[in-house]
Design a protein that fits this description.
Layout lengths: L1 H23 L14 H12 L1 H5 L2 E4 L2 E4 L29 E2 L5 E4 L2 E4 L16 H10 L15 H4 L4 H13 L20
Antiparallel strand pairs: 1-2, 3-4, 4-5
Helix pairs in contact: 2-6, 4-6
């Protein structure tokens, strides 16, 4: 009888744990015993693993090389930054792609693209975006899910393959970072690339 009560009790505890995990937004540990993560923690992990800061965070230049500027985390291309002069012939189809020293601006056959402000600033970032808009943008490669194309080097095609759960986690993390007011310039069309 005790054995039956113990088994029943363990089953109830296991069932309660599963229900609690599902309703709290946490994921269960995987087979290797990973620590449970909230959507924000999972999103931070994915942002780090995906190298989002490589392009979306301006850099500080140190003796060890460029490091992300934590005061402008995911704020995109600095609004006041200027691009160095370059020969537009270098970025003709089949030639080079160029990036500024912060890696926040890219020049190629697509024109000039600037890394977006991914912070939740309502005026200059993603503060007005909803989870649905974010997922639609990542699935379609369109700004806000229906606008202009998201330009290279943004790897939206790879993100389009992410699960809804991972895209929701990414969005949750982006909504949790401090907002930074930074109006990123609009992209420049290929025919308007003149070396600046």
């Amino acid at each position: 009888m005790r054995k039956g009560l113990l088994t029943c009790g363990l089953l109830l505890i296991g069932l309660a744990t599963i229900i609690l995990l599902q309703t709290s937004g946490c994921s269960a540990p995987d087979q290797e015993g990973a620590v449970m993560q909230s959507p924000v923690e999972r999103g931070k992990y994915l942002v780090t693993l995906g190298g989002c800061n490589d392009c979306h965070t301006p850099k500080n230049f140190t003796p060890q090389g460029p490091v992300p500027d934590e005061t402008r985390l995911l704020a995109g291309h600095p609004a006041d930054a200027t691009l160095p002069e370059f020969d537009p012939a270098l970025v003709a189809p089949g030639n080079w792609y160029l990036f500024n020293s912060h890696l926040t601006a890219g020049v190629g056959p697509w024109g000039i693209s600037y890394a977006a402000n991914l912070t939740p600033d309502e005026a200059t970032g993603m503060g007005l975006w909803t989870e649905e808009i974010f997922i639609q943008a990542m699935r379609t490669g369109k700004h806000m899910g229906t606008g202009r194309p998201i330009l290279p080097p943004m790897p939206w095609q790879g993100l389009a393959e992410a699960t809804d759960e991972d895209l929701k986690a990414l969005f949750a993390y982006l909504k949790s970072v401090p907002p930074v007011k930074n109006a990123v310039p609009a992209p420049v069309e290929p025919g308007e690339v003149g070396g600046k």
